């Protein structure tokens, strides 16, 4: 609707001799649907009083576009207030709801999304919930708009923890051939914390583990045997949890896959003279004159020859460019990695290994009610699996009938609780995870949206008929206007890479739809009004369902 109004206004402006792309926004003023405040900007450009310009525009609107408006007026000192006609609302609504993609604009970029990023051999924690569900939502939305998306989990599969676990295995099975050693998930879950603890106490162990890691990175075939066993067990477990969350990847590459490209990459850097030696280490300077904070050089190889996190990210960019030639790569990781990505992005641009767009979506932390990083009831850093189980338990205990719920529905609701809790916040912000609050059916929660959908779905009849020109009351009008926002909500979410825009719209829409349902006694009605309300509620549920799916939330059969 905004878009249509803008087109009309632009046409009017042009006919009046103003060359300007105007903006129309929803108005907060009671009884006004939309407003345009650009007369002030035009006044500056054309040296004319804003009120006069606004008046000219309004006169033209009345003259040439009468059918579209119930009322257009100017309020001092130059705001244009618009009340659209019922028939314009209804025509636009029918058009929008039958359009593909709910009227969202179509894009056709190739975009790599880097999310998930768990570290092999360590259990998934609450932070991984954020990268996984934010990443998947952005992926769904960009794909919905027609882009070709490529998701890559980018496992942390060759870092310090691998040397530590291998060290543990070697000491636990001293007399066994590596091929014959058998370990399982339980073993991994115990061994990583045990050895990483030991490294903190004992400098020799720490050195030994670092040595193993380095050899592993250099391709030591013996260590690779154990490494492969660790990866297989851990990745199976990671898959299980991400499957539960309906989070999927086209590629399960890891940092280790970038190592294959280090040879070419280093040669390229050397021939192009991109690197500088600094105390035996190879670095790329990435400081810029306009920096307000110090951006240290990007270290790509330590003096002992070891590679670093930045090297693996540059190697991965090199690989992605080669394999997919994307227009853009989007990284969804903890905001605390912001400096790392600033360095990597700059190094990549400066060395010309990739000239597409590089986007960092850094998310905030999940805190407990005490505003400290979230812990589960059992204490300790929250394992993602424990959090999922706690949410499930909380929901089951909420009402007696929840105990008999079928498992598939229950899992959908647990997903809705977790995802809506997270995605309603601007991803850059920290938020407090309050299991009880987020599981409630009332309030700004996943269950509330699901419940709204299911309740309305029960009212819908299969009767056909078409929408009349009528709008029956203010609540009805509010719902129709809200539905008309959907295309711009999707476009805005995609443009900003901010799923909370959709989540907040879904909540607002649900509040309005519930109000509509309560104020208009839909059940007892007959005739055209029944048909009209049935169609509007169908539209409402189409929008809710489509947007929930984009957020990775699926609707249960009942709840
Ligand atoms: N494994 C990293 C971590 O847990 C996240 C990886 C993010 N992606 C990347 N390309 N660096 O911190």
Would you kindly provide a written description of the structure presented here, covering whatever features stand out?
- α2 packs across α3.
- This protein is α/β, with parallel strands linked by helices and 559 residues long.
- The protein has a 4-stranded antiparallel beta sheet with strand order 1-2-4-3. A 4-stranded parallel beta sheet has the order 6-5-10-11, with helices on both faces. Strands 7-8-9 form a 3-stranded antiparallel beta sheet.
- The protein has helices spanning 2-15, 39-46, 50-64, 86-98, 126-144, 160-172, 185-201, 203-217, 221-244, 255-258, 262-271, 309-324, 338-350, 384-396, 407-423, 435-439, 446-459, 474-483, 486-496, 500-519, 528-550, and strands at residues 25-26, 34-36, 69-75, 79-84, 110-114, 148-152, 276-278, 281-284, 298-301, 328-334, 357-363, 366-367, 431-432.
- Among the domains are: 2-84, Gyrase A, domain 2 (2-Layer Sandwich); 160-244, no CATH class.
- α5 links the parallel β5 and β6 (148-152).
- The protein is globular and about 90 Å long.
- Helices cover 53% and strands 10% of the residues.
- It starts with a helix and ends in a 9-residue tail after the last helix.
- The mean pLDDT is 94.
- The protein contains 21 helices and 13 strands.
- The site of arginine has 8 residues, from β10.
- Arginine binds at residues 114, 117, 119, 154, 156, 313, 331, 333.
